[in-house]
Amino acid sequence: MGGIIVALALALTLSGCSALKLGYNSLPELLYWWLDGYADFSDGQDKQVRAELARLHTWHRQQELPRVSELLARLEQLAPGEISPQQACTVVADAQARLASVSDAIGPAAGTVIASFSETQLRHIERKFRRSNDKFRKEAIDVSKAEAQDKRFDQMLDRLEMLYGRLDEPQRAVLRQGIAQSDYDAARILADRQRRQQDLLQTLRHVARAHMAPEEARAQLRAWLERAQHAPDAAYRSWQEGLVQEGCRTFAAVHQSTTASQREHAVRRLRGYQSDLRELAAPAQ
Length: 285
Description:
By secondary structure, this protein is mainly alpha-helical. It has one domain (3-281). Helices cover 83% and strands 0% of the residues. It has 13 helices and no strands. Helix 4 packs antiparallel against helix 5 (85-104) and helix 4 crosses helix 6 (108-115).
């Protein structure tokens, strides 16, 4: 529950300024409806979930937005010059640290809610997982290699052009080459995704059947988040880290191919994001 807030917040920092402000202020409501689509909350759970999301949102606004702004400031300092893969990976590590911090901020209300899940709700979550996995399989696995790479290219291009503005064909070729050489394996990602889902369902069933106290249930949820973020399979973790390193190399290569005007565009965009985040983090008057 908590980790998705940072994930969405970081994603929003790479969108338009007005969308950033509107989207961030709407996060509790958006997250509620996303979670309710999985868990189908009862009336009593509804109030607790909304209260916990509001608390997390306030905490994130006060504690985390300044840190995200600092992360963007460091990226702004790097943008005018060359960026090495190691420097890019430092930014990634900082973003991952922000994600981890939210897991630690989950409150007792989350434990209260998961301890009250019924078997009907758990089956509902299981069905949603199955449908989501079927969609991922259809879009990322049951397609040709070329189709899968084209989709990844389009997604990555959209994110890069939010930062640099339009990329020219030679720059796009650098991105295509990075994707073509990647060790990305959608089937392997799906298998780990299913592992995390089954682990969560087992955790939720254990919590509900044991009638755990809120603090104990929260501890179980945090333990699952730790396992979700760090796969127990050492070979998978090594492969996953390899993908991160690949992404850092591809980003550095694309950045190296950008022009001075594109880098200045990135500086202006990053500076604007920081201004928006400072405004969002400022205490209400």
